[in-house]
Amino acid sequence: MPKSIYVGNIAFSTSEDDLRNVFAQYGEVLSVKFINDRETGRFRGFGFVEMNDADALEAVQALNGKELGGRALKVNEAQEREARPPRRY
Questions:
Q1: Residue 89 has pLDDT above 80, yes or no
Q2: CB neighbours of 10 closer than 8 A, spacing ≥ 6?
Q3: Nearest to 5 by CA among 26, 15, 44
Q4: pTM surpassing 0.85?
């Protein structure tokens, strides 16, 4: 079953392919998604990698704190997004 991994503190010069290659050392990467700002479209410095359960656990342990593009990655299992109150306009 696939597991989603949160990856934070990603350098703005890093591409999705760069991140995919780093995680691929620990198993098959099913998807990589960078998160962009809704209003400006600019990359927000974090994203998600999807891998199989066993591979994901190994990748999280090995890559948390590892430097990529001059920045130490923050890697952990993604948590479900908390419900937010409705937006007021």
A1: no
A2: 19, 34, 43, 45, 46, 47, 68, 69, 71, 73
A3: 26
A4: yes
